[in-house]
């Protein structure tokens, strides 16, 4: 058999090739940028890069057109006409930064909370949060609150990590792979590479999504589930597995809190909390002695079947509560089939396939390892089932508990951190206790008392004023949304406009297109940005906006700070932030200016470095008030978050140290010479069982993920959730307001639950309406791209067959879509592979006229449309007259996918409705 030979493909002749990191989605692939006469001529994948291994998608290749887009902003600008008019004048950078200082310096000295600093798809959040913390405002967050915080928070609280940036399937050993609610925009190249491996060796791929596109289109089996019912389906699968006895009891006993004892005294203020000893260690029953011992006792044999009484109080293991709850007939396939849109027989078949693959196809790897109890194992047990999920299950008001249910399913099968299953990516896993708690103490003229975002463990950690009101403008970490680990960006403008919980002075935003596709309630949001009080002053007094392009938001700014394109900037893809690691290796990367800007623009992070120094912020100036950093590149090299640990983990000290080491002045050049990234392999004996594997724990300390080993067990029963329930039941000093007690008692269950996530009346609004991001686009900037526009220039509303026939639609027809909040009139198209109760469209294709450098008659601005016009950030008024946030009650994630609508045939139009006047302004 002949060796395969690479085809002889002519190499384009360019002057130079420079390697950096893509920014056309959040994948952050390695790219080779070819230059001709000093200009970008061609972009290809970097075959040596750990993320994409040379694979590059349409978005990445089209980065050249992003770099040359006509919509690029060209200079700092100050508004000179009414807000929204687009009337600006160009100013110098010194003028722009001085104006920002004139606005911000008085706030810092008197009321730092009056600055609200929120960023969109910012990939340098450890730095932007560092600026906000040193300014002293509690009002900072990035876009995760309206993207996927349910995925991240549920994963951290349950098992110390989640999907995508936190972990990945074991592509080499998985034999059955389930995708829940996954579109094509996140982590696309690694998933495509992984799916290719699965297909090549005949592994089964199962798609669970109302819409069959992309990855779901190539799945071996597709479950067209009714939106918002994924959690119910998952709990029914758990019901089937429990009834069949097909769960991994050894795994549960050794690596989870399944054997930990739960207080069952109905009169106790500790009912539902876990039993601990004097050292605060969780207690389990030892089968050998029948006595409670700390969970990490060497040689312990955890008892899952026993019970224990202490001081007259009964305690039983968590696993018994799990069995009692999910063996209920409420979760039987026949009981959930109609709501899920999946026949009971198919649910049972899926459960049986999961069990058969996990247990009957189990295997072992001959890799010895030692667990945290000191037990030595000669092999690693493989269970070849893995799962992945994203926004489709997350962007519902029941998304947090749904994501927890999915993790419970994985763990009951014993498929997390084992060969063939779901694996964590360094620097994860980390238990919730390893993360900071949120901070909100404001001191004029001083930094905030700690990081803004984090993980609460009970009511004592909430961000409340002494009077019990929310301390943040978005009401994150309040009784409304206690565990809002990423903030609530979708509520900032509405709350600031209403002055609830207080008024702000300056809204500072970066890459957050809140005047269009990044906002619910789009028309009213634009009105809020221009609304005035009785004196004629704007209700949101000042708006500073930074972006690289003329988005719809630009016209609403008072001061514009123009950013570079990603090929003209320094950036840090850091382990302190959103890592690009894979399960077998730790990695980070940089961007650097492969070309210099031809406009008067600056990288936003360098602007913040300058602004921080001008404001005299701690961390930005030395004791004499001199700037600590020349620019962001200087910060990337010199800054230390703690001794020896900085933004970049590679090439530290003399250039050979990794993880820990003194700053290296040549560090960035070392990254450039290495293709723009750094990577170190996880030792072979440390690659599985990471939370419990002593080899991994020791290596993680060496790499500075933490300063001492932190083995832990998975939280099937979540004590933080139970602590909030106890408060709602009247226990403890911090008490929720009465109108939230019932919600907290019901929704913050310590075991995963499912509940209907919308209050829309089914007879009035019988259809679910969803958006998905297409594979060829990610951010709203994609639909200004000259190449990508040829793939998605317009977006019809896709309608399922039965609805299509019921309303007599034909090709070329239009429809009016109506929700509680509004209506739109748009073109429709037939789609058969779609849940019969669901309509959907591509997200962020529709543009407002005058934005993004597009012609006035561009199809994106005429036939393109948004579902955002139908969604409100507030739910309809309840019986008490209150309107609550359209968010998950646990985390505050925006419930974009709870939209319910009705549809009616409409006369064809020249343009989609609503249509707004063109936005004017610079580009």
**Order of strands in the sheet with most strands:** 5-4-25-24-23-6-7
Quote the distance from N terminus to C terminus: 59 Å
Q: Report Rg.
A: 27 Å
β-strand amount: 15-25%
Helix content: 10-25%
SS-derived structural category: alpha/beta
Number of extended strands: 34
Shape: globular
Largest sheet: 7 strands, mixed
The helix count comes to: 24
Can you describe this structure?
With 923 residues, the protein is of the alpha/beta class. 24% of the residues lie in helices and 16% in strands. The protein has 24 helices and 34 strands. The strands form 10 sheets. It has a 7-stranded mixed β-sheet with strand order 5-4-25-24-23-6-7, with helices on one face. A 6-stranded mixed β-sheet has the order 30-32-31-34-29-33. A hairpin with a 4-residue loop joins strand 31 and strand 32. Helix 5 (149-159) packs across helix 14 (399-412). The chain is globular, with a radius of gyration of 27 Å. The protein starts with 15 loop residues before the first strand and ends in a 17-residue tail after the last strand. The relative contact order is 0.15.
């Amino acid at each position: 058999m002949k060796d395969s030979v690479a085809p002889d493909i002519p190499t384009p002749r360019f002057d130079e090739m420079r390697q950096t990191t893509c920014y056309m989605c959040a994948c952050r692939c390695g790219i080779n940028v070819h230059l001709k006469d000093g200009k970008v001529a061609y972009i290809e994948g970097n075959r040596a890069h750990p993320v994409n291994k040379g694979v590059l998608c349409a978005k990445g290749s089209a980065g050249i057109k992003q770099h040359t887009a006509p919509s690029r902003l060209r200079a700092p600008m100050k508004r000179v006409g009414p807000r929204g008019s687009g009337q600006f004048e160009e100013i110098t950078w010194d003028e722009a930064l001085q104006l920002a200082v004139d606005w911000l310096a008085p706030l810092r000295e008197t009321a730092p909370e009056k600055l609200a600093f929120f960023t969109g798809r910012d990939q340098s959040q450890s730095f932007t949060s560092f600026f906000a913390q040193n300014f002293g405002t509690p009002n900072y967050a990035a876009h995760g609150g309206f993207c996927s915080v349910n995925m991240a928070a549920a994963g951290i609280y349950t098992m110390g990590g989640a999907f995508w940036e936190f972990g990945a399937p074991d592509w080499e050993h998985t034999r059955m792979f389930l995708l829940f609610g996954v579109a094509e925009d996140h982590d696309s190249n690694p998933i495509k590479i992984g799916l290719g491996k699965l297909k090549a060796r005949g592994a089964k791929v199962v798609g669970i999504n109302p819409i069959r596109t992309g990855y779901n289109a190539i799945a071996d089996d597709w479950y067209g589930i009714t939106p918002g019912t994924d959690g119910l389906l998952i709990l029914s699968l758990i019901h089937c597995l429990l009834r069949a006895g097909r769960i991994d009891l050894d795994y549960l006993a050794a690596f989870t809190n399944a054997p930990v004892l739960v207080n069952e005294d109905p009169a106790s203020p500790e009912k539902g909390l876990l039993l601990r000893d004097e050292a605060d260690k969780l207690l389990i029953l030892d089968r050998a002695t029948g006595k409670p011992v700390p969970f990490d006792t060497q040689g312990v044999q955890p008892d899952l079947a026993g019970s224990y009484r202490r001081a007259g109080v009964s305690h039983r293991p968590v696993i018994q509560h799990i069995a009692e709850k999910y063996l209920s007939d409420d979760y039987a396939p026949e009981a959930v089939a109609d709501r899920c849109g999946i026949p009971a027989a198919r649910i049972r078949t899926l459960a049986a396939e999961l069990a058969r693959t996990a247990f009957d196809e189990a295997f072992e790897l001959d890799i010895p390892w030692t667990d945290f109890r000191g037990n030595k194992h000669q092999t690693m047990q493989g269970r070849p089932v893995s799962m992945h999920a994203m926004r489709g299950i997350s962007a519902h008001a029941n998304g947090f508990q749904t994501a927890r249910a999915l993790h419970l399913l994985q763990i009951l099968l014993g498929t997390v951190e084992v060969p063939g299953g779901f694996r964590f990516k360094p620097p994860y896993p980390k238990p919730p206790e390893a993360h900071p708690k949120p901070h909100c103490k404001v001191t004029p003229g001083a930094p905030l008392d700690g990081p803004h975002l984090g993980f609460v463990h009970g009511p004592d950690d909430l961000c409340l004023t002494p009077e019990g009101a929310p301390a943040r403008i978005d009401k994150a970490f309040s009784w409304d949304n206690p565990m809002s680990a990423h903030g609530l960006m979708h509520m900032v403008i509405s709350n600031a406009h209403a002055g609830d919980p207080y008024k702000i002075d300056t809204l500072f935003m970066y890459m957050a297109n809140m005047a269009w596709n990044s906002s619910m309630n789009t028309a009213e949001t634009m009105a809020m940005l221009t609304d005035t009080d009785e004196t004629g002053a704007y209700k949101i007094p000042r708006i500073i906006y930074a972006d690289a392009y003329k988005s719809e938001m630009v016209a609403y700014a008072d001061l514009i700070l123009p950013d570079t394109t990603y090929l003209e900037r320094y950036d840090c893809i850091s382990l302190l932030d959103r890592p690009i690691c894979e399960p077998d290796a730790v990695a980070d990367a940089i961007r650097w200016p492969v070309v210099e800007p031809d406009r008067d623009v600056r990288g936003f992070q360098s602007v913040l470095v300058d602004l921080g120094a001008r404001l005299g912020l701690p961390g930005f100036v030395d004791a004499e008030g001199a700037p600590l950093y020349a620019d962001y590149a200087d910060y990337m090299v010199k800054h230390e978050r703690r001794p020896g640990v900085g933004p970049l983990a590679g090439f530290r000290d003399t250039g050979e140290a990794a993880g820990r080491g003194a700053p290296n002045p040549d560090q960035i050049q070392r990254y450039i010479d290495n293709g723009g990234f750094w990577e170190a392999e996880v030792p072979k004996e440390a690659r599985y069982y990471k939370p419990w594997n002593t080899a991994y724990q020791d290596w993680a300390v060496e790499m500075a993920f933490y300063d001492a080993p932190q083995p832990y067990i998975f939280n099937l029963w979540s004590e933080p959730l139970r602590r909030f329930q106890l408060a709602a039941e009247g226990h403890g000093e911090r008490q929720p307001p009465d109108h939230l007690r019932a919600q907290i008692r019901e929704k913050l269950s310590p075991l995963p639950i499912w509940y209907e996530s919308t209050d829309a009346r089914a007879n009035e609004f019988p259809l679910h309406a969803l958006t998905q991001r297409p594979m060829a686009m990610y951010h709203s900037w994609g639909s200004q791209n000259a190449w990508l526009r040829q793939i998605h220039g317009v977006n019809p509303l896709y309608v399922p067959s039965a609805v299509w026939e019921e309303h007599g639609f034909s090709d070329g027809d239009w429809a009016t879509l109506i929700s509680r909040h509004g209506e739109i009139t748009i073109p429709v198209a037939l789609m058969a592979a779609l849940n019969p109760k669901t309509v959907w469209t591509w997200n962020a294709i529709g543009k407002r006229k005058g934005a993004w450098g597009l012609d006035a008659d561009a199809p994106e601005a005429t036939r393109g449309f948004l579902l955002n016009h139908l969604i409100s950030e507030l739910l309809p008024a309840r019986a008490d007259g209150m309107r609550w946030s359209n968010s998950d009650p646990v985390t505050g994630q925006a419930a974009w996918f709870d939209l319910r609508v009705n549809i009616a045939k409409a006369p064809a139009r020249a343009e989609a409705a609503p249509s707004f006047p063109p936005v004017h302004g610079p580009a």
